[in-house]
């Protein structure tokens, strides 16, 4: 990596699950970086390893089945995989914070939301209880919760789904982390609420100069928030590039097919209705992966060699990388 | 155009019961005065955010729950009170109006083979002899993109998309005229959705079906539906053909909904009207226009009078006071 604003640098990360069904290579050799102030999106269908990538960074891989078997995760040039749990606890919430799809599962139902924010602040900052409470209320105000002073005394169940996600964002940003990992933060919300939350996240990102790692399966959300995109399939990066390369010049057959398979609002009115381009077959089961390219069974452009040969990432220049035997690297061309 | 289903002023209010005597302590106004017509061979989309009453509307049409008031006419027959209908007419109605559910995992009996899931409804209604039922199961499986050779398998052996195909085959087995599809692709993976959408479009022509297509994804709805009804808090606030609605949305809620959709194009200009606050609870719908507390264009009569759904011409219906001013 030859630029200096790399904040997070993940190298050859492998996180596997060992279960009675066998081994699932949930994250199978991921290498990527996150720059200061950027929003990087990881997109992919359910089960492809997005959440486990995030949890690996947070040091929260589900135990005992899951295990990081290889790789390095540098935060400001320090390999945090070497850190003991106590040190990771200092990092979580302070340097890297995470929000989840379902705020209810990570909020404590028995504590007021104000106390939950205070707790995070007290954990990482030398402040009095009173100061931490005041900061909690001001965080609730920053995430645009009406009457924040009163709402701080509410319990999570008294809030709507959208409000809970705001509270999660308030907790996550309360210690001004360098990185915010958002795992499908709006998937459970309605579109008008999703628009509010995305707008809020992008505005706070500016104010707090936070980098965002956005995980989603929604290509619309990606196009709106991300500068760079990683497309994941079966535990691997299959394509990576800036938002314009991915949407306007996708090179992997999966990315190409996915973009053509989703209906676009207004398309029928403007161009008439054509059948959607289907991607045949099913989303792969990581416990039953064969050899060769994992997209091969569904790929329209597959060649015989795709079934057997392990495919590496080809650098197309300009940060555009693709894992497909059809793509020649810039150097080869 | 011939109407196959006419719904007039449909209301479904769920009583809220509390205490040991189960006293009614108010109502959830889940569906509160919905009227629409479904024409033969047409697809009517119903969109709106969760809790706005889409599923309840579908269940009410299917007569799977008690209707508080309103009239439902199917093929010219009033079916609003199924308890007063002759038994054979009820059976006929049940066969002709089928449903496909959102969740392909919980909607199939895990202990039944596919053959039974698709074939048993025909057996129960003694629609055909055993040999013919077997043939029809194979035929329907083929039509819905399943391999008839897999009829002996159980639902858990299939992926989400295939299970949705099984649900569709089961619905088709009764020879329906109307299929109510309640968010049939929402639970599926993105790369699988196109398969099911295309299948539904193909089957509609082949089997001469009318659809009520419930969804919250507007892009899918525009793709599949001839007309679209937008619901908010138990009411239809706007209804028009898909082109008309896309090109000329009128209700402030429809406009906000459209502008909230993330567009899969990084160069798309975003000129967003962000709505404030959450959808109010259908237990206490706001006075007047139920959208008024969130409406960016709310003016003085809005919190007093409930706007009626009016035809603005070109069969574009809107319920908003902005279009009543002269
Ligand atoms: N708790 C677990 N136990 C066993 N396997 C798991 C567990 N969590 C995840 N996996 C495996 O890891 C894969 C990736 O999971 P995940 O990262 O959650 O996917 P997603 O992309 O949907 O977030 C899954 O397909 C599954 O095979
Ligand atoms: N059986 C029921 N008893 C009480 N309330 C219900 C019942 N079914 C649905 N509701 C309520 O009615 C409203 C409309 O629900 P629903 O029709 O499922 O909405 P949608 O399908 O648009 O998400 C919601 O507020 C829901 O909580
Ligand atoms: S009636 Fe009034 S409050 Fe309701 S949508 Fe129209 S302008 Fe807004
Ligand atoms: Mg996930
Ligand atoms: Mg519903």
A few lines on this structure:
The complex is a heterodimer of chains A (333) and B (326). Chain A is of the alpha/beta class.
Structural summary, described in words:
The complex is a heterodimer of chains A (333) and B (326). Chain A has 12 helices and 12 strands. With 333 residues, chain A is an alpha/beta fold. The longest helix of chain A is centred in the middle third of the chain and has 18 residues. The model of chain A has no long low-confidence stretch (mean pLDDT 93). Chain B is an alpha/beta fold and 326 residues long. Helix content of chain B is 29%, strand content 24%. In chain B, the strands form 2 sheets. An 8-stranded mixed beta sheet of chain B has the order 6-7-8-3-9-10-12-11, sandwiched between helices. In chain B, strands 2-1-4-5 form a 4-stranded antiparallel beta sheet. In chain B, strand 1 and strand 2 form a beta hairpin. The longest helix of chain B has 18 residues. The radius of gyration of chain B is 21 Å and the shape is globular. Bound molecules: adenosine-5'-diphosphate (2 copies), iron/sulfur cluster (SF4) and magnesium ion (2 copies).
- Give the overall shape of chain B, derived from the CA principal axes: globular
**Mean of residue pLDDT values of chain A:** 93
**Unreliable segments of chain B (pLDDT under 50, ≥5 consecutive)?**
none
The largest sheet of chain A is: 8 strands, mixed
**Spans of chain A with pLDDT under 50 lasting ≥5 residues?**
none
Number of strands of chain B: 12
Task: Summarize the helices and strands and which ones pair or pack.
The complex is a heterodimer of chains A (333) and B (326).
Chain A: E1 6-19, E2 22-35, E3 39-43, H1 50-58, E4 66-75, E5 78-79, H2 85-91, E6 96-99, H3 103-106, H4 113-124, H5 129-142, H6 148-151, H7 161-173, E7 179-183, H8 191-208, E8 211-216, H9 219-225, E9 228-233, E10 236-242, H10 243-248, H11 253-261, H12 267-271, E11 314-315, E12 321-322
Helix pairs in contact in A: 4-5, 4-7, 5-7, 7-8
Chain B: E1 3-18, E2 23-39, E3 43-47, H1 54-61, E4 69-74, E5 77-78, H2 87-96, E6 97-100, H3 114-124, H4 130-143, H5 160-172, E7 178-182, H6 190-207, E8 210-215, H7 218-224, E9 227-232, E10 235-241, H8 242-247, H9 252-260, E11 310-311, E12 317-318
Parallel strand pairs in B: 3-8, 3-9, 6-7, 7-8
Antiparallel strand pairs in B: 1-2, 1-4, 4-5, 9-10, 10-12, 11-12
Helix pairs in contact in B: 3-4, 3-5, 4-5, 5-6
The complex binds adenosine-5'-diphosphate (2 copies), iron/sulfur cluster and magnesium ion (2 copies).
């Amino acid at each position: 990596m030859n630029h200096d604003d790399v904040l997070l640098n993940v190298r050859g990360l492998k996180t596997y699950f060992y279960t009675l069904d066998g081994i699932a290579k949930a994250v199978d050799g991921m290498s990527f970086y996150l720059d200061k102030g950027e929003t990087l999106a990881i997109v992919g269908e359910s089960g492809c390893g997005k959440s486990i990538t995030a949890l690996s960074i947070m040091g929260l891989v589900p135990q005992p089945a899951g295990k990081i078997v290889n790789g390095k995760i540098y935060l400001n040039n320090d390999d945090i995989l070497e850190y003991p749990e106590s040190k990771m606890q200092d990092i979580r919430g302070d340097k890297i914070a995470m929000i989840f799809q379902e705020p209810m599962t990570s909020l404590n139902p028995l504590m007021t939301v104000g106390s939950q924010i205070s707790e995070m602040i007290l954990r990482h900052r030398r402040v009095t209880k009173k100061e931490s409470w005041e900061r909690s209320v001001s965080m609730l105000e920053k995430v645009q919760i009406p009457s924040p002073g009163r709402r701080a005394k509410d319990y999570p169940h008294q809030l709507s789904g959208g409000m809970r996600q705001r509270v999660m964002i308030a907790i996550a940003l309360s210690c001004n982390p360098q990185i915010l990992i958002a795992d499908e933060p709006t998937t459970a919300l309605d579109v008008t609420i999703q628009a509010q939350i995305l707008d809020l996240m992008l505005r706070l990102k500016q104010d707090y100069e936070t980098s965002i790692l956005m995980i989603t399966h929604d290509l619309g959300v990606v196009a709106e928030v991300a500068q760079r995109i990683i497309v994941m399939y079966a535990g691997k990066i299959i394509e990576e590039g800036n938002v314009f390369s991915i949407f306007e010049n996708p090179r992997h057959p999966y990315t190409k097919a996915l973009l053509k398979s989703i209906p676009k609002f207004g398309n029928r009115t403007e161009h008439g209705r054509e059948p959607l381009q289907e991607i045949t077959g099913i989303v792969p089961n990581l416990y039953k992966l064969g050899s060769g390219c994992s997209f091969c069974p569904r790929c329209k452009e597959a060649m015989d060699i795709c079934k057997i040969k392990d495919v590496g990432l080809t650098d197309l220049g300009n940060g555009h990388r693709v894992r497909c035997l059809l793509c020649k690297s810039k150097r080869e061309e | 155009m011939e109407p196959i289903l006419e719904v007039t002023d449909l209301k479904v209010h769920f009583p809220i019961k509390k205490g040991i005597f189960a006293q009614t302590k108010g109502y959830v106004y889940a569906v509160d005065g919905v009227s629409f017509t479904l024409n033969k061979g047409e697809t009517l989309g119903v969109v709106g955010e969760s809790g706005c009453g889409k599923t309840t509307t579908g269940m009410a049409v299917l007569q799977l729950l008690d209707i508080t008031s309103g009239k439902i006419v199917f093929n010219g027959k009033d079916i609003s009170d199924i308890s007063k209908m002759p038994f054979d007419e009820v059976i006929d109605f049940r066969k002709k109006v089928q449903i496909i559910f959102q969740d392909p995992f919980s909607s199939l009996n895990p202990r039944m083979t596919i053959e039974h899931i698709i074939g048993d409804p025909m057996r129960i209604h003694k629609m055909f002899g055993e040999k013919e039922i077997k043939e029809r199961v194979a035929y329907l499986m083929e039509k819905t993109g399943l391999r008839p050779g897999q009829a002996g398998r159980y639902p858990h052996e299939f992926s989400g998309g295939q299970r949705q195909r099984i649900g569709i085959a089961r619905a088709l087995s009764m020879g329906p005229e109307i299929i109510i599809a309640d968010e049939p692709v929402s639970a599926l993976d993105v790369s699988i959705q196109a398969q099911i959408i295309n299948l539904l479009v193909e089957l509609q022509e082949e089997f001469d079906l009318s659809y009520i297509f419930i969804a919250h994804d507007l892009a899918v709805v525009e793709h599949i539906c001839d007309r679209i009804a937008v619901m908010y808090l138990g009411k239809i606030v706007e209804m028009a053909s898909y082109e008309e609605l896309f090109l000329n949305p009128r209700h402030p809620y429809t406009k906000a909904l459209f502008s909230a959709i993330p567009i899969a194009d990084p160069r798309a200009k975003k000129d967003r009207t962000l709505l404030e606050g959450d959808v109010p609870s259908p237990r206490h719908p706001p006075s007047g226009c139920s959208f008024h507390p969130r409406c960016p264009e709310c003016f003085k009569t809005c919190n007093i009078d409930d706007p009626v759904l009016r035809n603005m011409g070109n069969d574009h219906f809107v319920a908003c006071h902005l279009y009543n001013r002269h």
